[in-house]
TrEMBL record:
Superkingdom of the source species: Bacteria
Gene Ontology biological-process entries: D-xylose metabolic process
InterPro entries given in the database record: ATPase_NBD (IPR043129), HTH_MarR-typ (IPR000835), ROK (IPR000600), WH-like_DNA-bd_sf (IPR036388), WH_DNA-bd_sf (IPR036390)
Any single Pfam family the record assigns to this protein: ROK
Entry protein name: ROK family protein
GO MF annotation list: DNA-binding transcription factor activity
Function, in words: Transcriptional repressor of xylose-utilizing enzymes.
UniProt keyword annotations, A-Z: Carbohydrate metabolism, Xylose metabolism
Family statement drawn from the similarity comment of this UniProt entry: Belongs to the ROK (NagC/XylR) family.
Residues in HTH marR-type domain copies: 14-56
Length: 368
């Protein structure tokens, strides 16, 4: 499991200590004091608050110190202290998942698609209310959507497959849900999921390509998602080539990009007639070769509903990529499948919400 990055500064001592305990299982108060140069009394006060909030648990006595001093009590991160809800909204389903802080699924419900904004929000509210009787308080809710998302205003800018434009989905949920709510792009969320507990857990540098109703991508660099200016990095569906210029293909608001439209069409032809395979291989190969040359990822991870179709011709794609780019990379299929976005948006919630709880709220649980 890849550790989620907590956003902290040196003044956020409680978050610093919690993150250290999470990264160093069965550590002592003395080790924490030494790591940060804190006094023993300061560490004791910080740990006491974390124990009160059930975020940390004591694990018994550790080893004696090198000087033969008294054994300290070991501390461990409590992955059951909170639960988190992740929701993946698509035009084929609304997948709702409840997990603990380690990503272990506690409850999962797949609902029929709901394209009406208010009705979709109500389905998520119903799931929240069902889960709110859970033993662990709910830390927050994350919703992934197939759209560029303005994170400063929580606006779903343009989701063609849902028919949503300029929708403040967070505001719809906030009418009924009092805990933190975060909206994130579906492909970004899927990449975060793979980085947390999937195929990307062992690397901090990978490119995630999603093939489904449309095409999207996300970039993980130095262990972090690259959002881009205006949170739009990874919009690979709008890649263009000379053919687009020749045919005067231009982007129109609310429409799929030209590369996206082309590849989805070729995939459909390949699936139904086993035709146009070479065209599909070349188009995808050129796109990935350019990405690999530009970003130098350790891996390219292929996910989404139609990833299996693309993996059928991956040997041919790899051959072309070796011709087009001198850089070496591993290309493999994602492991979380349909759960990737709902699990990934949970990791996004965890990263954002711990700062809210430990710093802004002073360590007060805000779940139930």
């Amino acid at each position: 499991m890849q550790l989620i990055h907590f956003p902290y500064t040196k003044s956020n001592n409680r978050l610093l200590v919690l993150d250290y305990i999470r990264r160093n299982e069965n550590c002592s108060r003395a080790e924490i004091a030494k790591a940060f140069g804190f006094s023993r009394s300061t560490v004791s006060l910080l740990v006491e608050k974390l124990l009160q909030n059930n975020m940390v648990k004591e694990m018994g006595l550790g080893a004696s110190t090198a000087e033969g001093g008294r054994k300290g009590t070991n501390l461990a991160f409590n992955y059951q202290s909170y639960s988190v809800i992740g929701v993946d909204v698509t035009n084929s389903s609304v997948l709702c998942v409840l997990t603990d802080l380690a990503g272990q699924v506690l409850k999962k419900v797949s609902l029929p698609p709901v394209l009406d904004v208010s009705l979709c929000a109500q389905k998520i509210v119903n799931f929240y209310q069902e889960c709110n009787h859970n033993e662990s308080p709910i830390l927050g809710i994350g919703v992934s959507v197939p759209s560029i998302v303005d994170h400063t205003k929580s606006i779903v800018i343009d989701a063609p497959s849902l028919g949503w434009k300029s929708v403040n989905f967070k505001a719809e949920l906030k009418k009924y849900i009092p805990i933190p709510i975060f909206i994130n792009n579906d492909v970004d969320s899927a990449a975060l999921g793979e980085h947390w507990i999937g195929k990307g857990a062992s690397t901090d540098h990978f490119f995630y390509l999603s093939i489904g109703t449309g095409i999207g991508s996300a970039i993980i660099s130095d262990g972090r998602l690259v959002p881009g200016f205006q949170y739009s990095a990874g919009e690979i569906g709008y890649f263009v080539d000379k053919e687009d210029l020749d045919h005067d293909n231009t982007y129109k608001f609310g429409k799929f990009g030209s590369f996206e439209h082309k590849v989805i069409h070729l995939l459909q032809e390949y699936k139904e007639k086993r035709s146009l395979e070479k065209d599909l291989v070349i188009d995808v190969s050129i796109a990935l070769a350019n990405v690999i040359s530009l970003l130098n990822p350790e891996r390219v991870i292929i996910g989404g509903q139609k990833s299996n179709q693309l993996m059928e011709i991956m040997d041919s794609i790899r051959t072309y990529i070796k011709r087009f780019s001198p850089l070496q990379t591993t290309i493999e299929k994602a492991s979380l499948n349909h759960k990737a976005s709902s699990i990934g948006v949970i990791s996004y919630v965890i990263e954002k919400s711990f700062y809210h709880i430990l710093v802004e709220k002073g360590g007060i649980p805000i779940g139930k």
